[in-house]
Each structure stands twice: as C-alpha cells, then as structure tokens.
Amino acid sequence: MKLVIGNQKSYMNKADVESFINETKDNIFNRENVIICPSDIYISSYIDNNYRTGGQNVSLKMNGPTTGEVSAQQLKSVGVTYCVVGHSERRKDNSETDIDTNIKIKNLLAEQLIPILCVGESREERENGLCLEVISREINTAFKDLSSDQAGQIIVAYEPVWAISDGINPASIPTNEEIKEIVLQIKDYVMNNNQVEVKVLYGGSVNDKNIDELNLIIELDGYLIGGASKNAKEFNYIINSTK
Ligand code: PGA
Q1: 64 C-alpha vs ligand 1 centroid, how far in Å?
Q2: Within a 10 A sphere around the Cβ of 236, how many other Cβ atoms?
C-alpha cells in the first residue's frame, strides 16, 4: 500500500488544525499508510487523535542547549514516528547541507525514528542534464557511514524543486514516465551502494486532480504532499484514491 505523507509546512493556525482533524480523523483512523507532519506545536493535537505523525525537521544536536530546536529524543518522547530531513525549503532557507542530512538521519535512527530524506534537482540542474548527478550526491552523503540495516529504514522522497507548489498554484510536474525513471534509478543506486531496498516517494504539487494518474506508477511507494495536505476535503480524496 502506498504511503500518503502530509507535509503541512507552516500553513495552518490552531483553528485550521482543529477543523482539519475534525474532517479527516474518521477517514484516517486505522490507516497505517497515512502520516501527518504538522508544525511541532500541533503534533500533540494529532497524536491525541490517533494520527501517525512525523516532524518536519530535527535538531543537529541531541538534547541540550540548542534554543529553538527540537531533538530526535523530544520527537520520540511525544510519540512521533517519522521525520522529514533535507527538504528543499530548508536547504534553501536554512542552508541545510548534505552533511547536515547525514547527521540528522543518524540522530533519528538512534531514536528509532524513520527519516524521510528529500532529494531533487532544480529546474536549471534538470535542464543541464544533472538530475541523476544531484540526486546521487544528496543520497550518497545522507547515507554516509550507515549500515545496510540503517539505510533500509530511510524513506527517500523524490521532490524536484521546480515541481513544488507555492501553496496556492500547483506547479507543473514530471510525467509518470519521468517519475518512474528517477524512482528506479534511486532504488538501483541505493541497492548498489547499500545492498538494501528503499521506499521511494514522489513529492511536488500532488493534488486531487493528478493523484489518480500518479497512482498508476506501480514502482512508486507513495507521496509527500504539501499544499494539498492542508485541505481536508482534498486530502481525504487523495487518501481514498490511493491504495
Ligand atoms: P507541494 O509540496 O505538494 O505543495 O508541492 C510538497 C513538499 O514540499 O513536500
């Protein structure tokens, strides 16, 4: 069954979260494949309503004097089970590097949390034929010094930076063939380097209009969904159509 992971970014205030929960909780109840990554301040609201949750980011350090950060231990202590690392918005806005993703992944694995590693090329890199080169570099450093067992716990999200929406208008997205090709390349790359199979998701402007078409890609293990995960009706539609 494909995973449906909602990355709610910083879109919602408390009232939005409450109505989202009211409108999705019956549908999401008992669905092991649906995970919500809210802002940290709302994680407990989701957990109290039996949602599976993920963080959107984790501290480079473990517990201690790191003002404004949330550690892997803290995420675990409230019942979080997943965490996004290396999202392109954090790479761009917070100068997160490939080395950082490696440290964060190790911190998460030490607490038995499942990392969701975002990788993907910019439009310029794609136009210059650098897609695979960029993705392999991102994976190679993020997976550095991990055992096969550890590597196998990581979920990779292929998120071409140019396909990520601005929260209002969806961007153009790759064709199913293009997504399938990259997904298989990522799986092969990790198999060759780490001797293990990884799950690969697609992210970037997934919505209720394109989900049925995307669901035809059998090689894909699921989705990381931004803008469309803040809208209960749209998210319910996506969950219901994804098997
Ligand atoms: P989007 O975001 O679905 O709004 O394009 C995806 C993501 O950034 O994870």
Answers
A1: 31
A2: 16
Q: Is the pTM of this model over 0.85?
A: yes
CB atoms within 10 A of CB 202: 28
Q: Which of 11, 205, 209 to mutate to test the pocket of ligand 1 (most atoms within 8 A of CB)?
A: 205
Dist CA 95 CA 46 (whole Å): 29
User: Is residue 87 annotated as a catalytic residue, yes or no?
Assistant: yes
Catalytic residue among 23, 87, 197, 234: 87
User: Can you give the pLDDT of all 243 residues of the chain as single tens digits?
Assistant: 999 999 999 999 999 999 999 999 999 998 999 999 999 999 999 999 999 999 999 999 998 899 999 999 999 999 999 999 999 999 999 999 999 999 999 999 999 999 999 999 999 999 999 999 999 999 999 999 999 999 999 999 999 999 999 988 889 999 999 999 999 999 999 999 999 999 999 999 999 999 999 999 999 999 999 999 999 999 999 999 999
Q: Which residue has a Cα nearest atom 1 of ligand 1?
A: 226
